[in-house]
Amino acid sequence: MAQLYTKVLGTVFILLAIAGFIFPMEGLFHLTAIHNLVHLASGIVAILTSGTKKMAVIYLKIAGFVYLLVGILGLFTPKFAGIHFMPADNVLHFLIALSSLAAGYVMQPSKSADTTVSQ
Questions:
Q1: Kind of pairing, strands 79-80 and 83-84?
Q2: 8 A C-beta contact, residue 18 and residue 35
Q3: pTM for this entry
Q4: Contacts 24+ apart (CB under 8 A), 71-74
Q5: Which helix (H) or strand (E) holds 57?
Q6: Helix (H, G, I), strand (E, B) or coil at 84
Q7: Integer distance in angstroms from the first to the last C-alpha of the chain?
Q8: Which residue spans traverse the membrane (predicted)?
Q9: Residue 80: pLDDT over 60
Q10: Whole-angstrom Cα distance, residue 4 to residue 107?
């Protein structure tokens, strides 16, 4: 689950970054070049860490925490380090944070699910 989610999230980040460079958005979402570079870096790191469950879980926990902080930051300032925070950006950052944290912490199968009882 963690590996698949990390790979999908990384792919979406990369596609979003490419789309943002081609079609700069300034309406519902405000994607600046710096914002697009952050998405591109997030996507590349996600793809690179999706190869093993352990690395994918680590990525999801860290990325979830970082995007949670970004969501909170967006509640208090409309712009930070060249990145604009629109209300839709904040909602999306919180959704990414919560889903990443859930995939990293909650949705992991227990170790006992992988073991069998021998007779």
A1: antiparallel
A2: no
A3: 0.81
A4: 71/97
A5: helix 53-76
A6: strand
A7: 30
A8: 56-78, 90-107
A9: yes
A10: 12
Buried b (16+ CB within 10 A) or exposed e, 51-90: eeeebbbebbbebbebbbebbeebeeeeeeeebbbbeebb
Domain boundaries, the chain: 2-108
Q: Compute the mean pLDDT over every residue in the chain, rounded to the nearest whole number.
A: 86
Task: Tell me the three state secondary structure of residue 30.
Answer: strand
Q: Which tokens go with 64?
A: 């979830």
CA-wise closest residue to 20 among 44, 46, 38: 38
Q: Tokens in use for 92?
A: 């999306």
Q: What is the pLDDT of residues 52-72, one digit of tens each?
A: 999 999 999 999 999 999 999
pLDDT tier at 109 (50, 70, 90 boundaries)? low
The pLDDT tens digits of the residues spanning 87-108 come to: 888 898 999 999 999 999 987 6
